[in-house]
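Re: that backbone. Tokens:
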């Protein structure tokens, strides 16, 4: 049985175009409609700050505070969360380079933003992700890592520790300091972290494949997912052996990497390969509408996975989700979102696009930075 997590009160201060705004929600899905530039995406971005990271725009904190505001921004929410009712307050403090994120849970400062995942999981799909299949490998990698992170909060720490170790190796090599003991120490760290990252990504793909294989409607086609670009041939070997092989590759690649000015082999070079399962063609060769449907199918499958693994349906932020689809497909989409059992926030310029949701959603109008339910 999946429990619902939902936000029932939201208060923003100096967040983007909002000086102050408050919204009382009744637990249903939330449809935000309003003209272009009204502040719909900003409101969803505020919700996305109730999860670790930089929010759905991957923003620099200093850009989020309202232009002209004297200090930072704040987002306050009352949430019916994984561990019951909780009050979450987050925001920014400081100026210029030294802006930092603050988080309070039930009024007490949190040790780390990762604590947010004890209370709720938030997933999103934005128009900026439309070019995922045709864009760069680094965007797909980031997308995959976010999928992994939602179930394995330690993945972010592993990735940043790997980055740090790799930077120090690159620096030593670029300075011509081929000290074997020093390099081996760093490379051991990289091998442990890099292989753990690869295995966590692979595990996520395995879990998703199990779910999408059982998907039963054709409106949102299944994707077949694979990893490539890092230790591809090492699929069934024990982790320790894979680690040894990567360690040897790093040691053997020192002069090559020094000449290239970067580390040529590692989890930072992996790519997520996506195919339209029924048509058996690469996602990048699908039509725009098919690509959007594949992406929606993927995000919904992931949401289902998070609900199954945690026992709590995640909160979904779906920016301009309805625009690409015809009426029939929209109705199927809303049914599938609803069947997940969580609370979804959706935006659009036209309220009529969401009529198939009927009583399942609360409609909120955004006009001139004012919210009215
Ligand atoms: N830090 C900021 N301070 C003040 N205003 C900002 C800030 N950042 C963005 N804005 C403004 O917020 C407004 C609303 O942006 P938002 O992306 O939420 O619009 P939207 O309703 O989603 O529009 P669309 O339908 O076009 O996607 C924009 O006019 C933007 O210039």
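Recovered sequence:
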């Amino acid at each position: 049985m999946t429990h619902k997590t939902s936000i029932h009160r939201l208060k923003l201060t100096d967040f983007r175009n909002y000086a102050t705004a408050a919204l009382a929600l009744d637990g249903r899905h939330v449809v935000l409609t309003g003209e272009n530039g009204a502040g719909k995406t900003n409101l969803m971005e505020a919700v996305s700050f109730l999860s670790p990271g930089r929010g759905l725009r991957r923003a620099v904190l200093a850009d989020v505070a309202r232009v002209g505001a004297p200090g930072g921004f704040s987002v306050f929410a009352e949430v019916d969360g994984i561990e019951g009712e909780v009050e979450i307050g987050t925001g920014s403090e400081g100026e210029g380079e030294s802006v930092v994120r603050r988080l309070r849970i039930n009024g007490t400062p949190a040790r780390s933003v990762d604590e947010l995942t004890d209370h709720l999981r938030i997933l999103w799909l934005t128009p900026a992700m439309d070019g995922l299949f045709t864009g760069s490998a680094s965007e797909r990698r980031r997308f995959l890592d976010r999928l992994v992170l939602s179930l394995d909060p330690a993945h972010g720490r592993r990735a940043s520790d790997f980055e740090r170790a790799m930077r120090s190796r690159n620096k030593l090599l670029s300075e011509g300091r081929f000290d074997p003991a020093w390099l081996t120490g760093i490379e051991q760290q990289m091998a442990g972290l890099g292989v753990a990252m690869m295995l966590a990504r692979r595990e996520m793909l395995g879990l998703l494949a199990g779910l999408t294989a059982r998907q039963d409607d054709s409106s949102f086609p299944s994707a077949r997912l694979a990893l490539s670009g890092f230790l591809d041939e090492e699929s069934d070997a024990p982790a320790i052996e894979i680690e040894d092989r990567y360690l040897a590759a790093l040691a053997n690649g020192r002069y090559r990497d020094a000449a290239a000015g970067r580390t040529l082999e590692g989890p930072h070079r992996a790519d997520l390969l996506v195919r339209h399962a029924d048509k058996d063609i690469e996602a990048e060769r699908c039509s725009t509408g098919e690509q959007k449907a594949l992406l929606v199918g993927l995000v919904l499958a992931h949401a289902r996975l998070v609900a199954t693994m945690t026992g709590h349906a995640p909160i979904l932020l779906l920016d301009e989700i309805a625009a690409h689809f015809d009426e029939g497909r929209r109705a199927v989409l809303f049914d599938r979102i609803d069947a997940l059992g969580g609370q979804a926030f959706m935006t659009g310029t036209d309220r009529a696009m969401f009529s198939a949701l009927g009583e399942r959603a609360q409609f909120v109008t955004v006009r001139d930075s004012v919210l009215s339910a």
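The chain has a mean pLDDT of 93. Residues 180-212 form the longest helix (33 residues).
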